[in-house]
Write a structure and sequence with these properties.
nine-stranded antiparallel sheet
């Protein structure tokens, strides 16, 4: 595997294997909001359960553009590495056929298995990332990361 292919694989794995990220949204008045959320990644799409009354859902209803940062703990005792990207989000109802199929297949259990579906006003965010994904420290050998942390950023295009 070439170095770009290794990086692409490592970034995709970090997105798929993780379950927590920070999600940044902004209102129509450009008031930013960032919050930690649990997510499930399915075929490159991130799914988050929330309520329609949440700040993140209200912001997305006004402005679909979002940013995501996924911390990746790889080296004990060191700060986490991370994957970050910009994308768009849409609010989906529980009855959305795409979500119903995923729920029936058990692919969203990590975000609905704790009683989320019983919450009043429950909905889902469907986050589609842009093609370019930035990573800090992912795919960088530990000795290089320790020696030159300023240059540990990478960028990769994902299909």
């Amino acid at each position: 595997m070439t170095e770009p292919e290794q990086l692409r694989h490592a970034v995709q794995e970090a997105i798929t294997e993780s379950s927590f990220c920070t999600l940044a949204t902004s209102s129509a008045e450009n008031r930013p909001h960032v919050v930690g959320v649990l997510y499930v990644a399915v075929d490159g799409i991130l799914y988050v359960s929330t309520t329609r009354q949440s700040t993140k859902a209200r912001n997305i209803a006004q402005n679909r553009r979002v940013a995501v940062c996924i911390p990746v703990a790889q080296h004990p005792g060191l700060p986490p590495l991370c994957v970050q990207f910009q994308g768009t989000a849409e609010i989906c109802s529980v009855q959305d056929p795409r979500l119903a199929a995923l729920m029936q297949a058990g692919r969203l259990d990590a975000i609905v298995g704790h009683g989320a579906l019983a919450e009043p006003g429950i909905c889902f965010l469907r986050i589609t990332r842009g093609r370019r994904v930035a990573a800090y420290g992912i795919g960088v050998p530990l000795d290089e990361l320790m020696r030159d942390p300023i240059h540990a950023s990478r960028s990769v295009v994902l299909a």
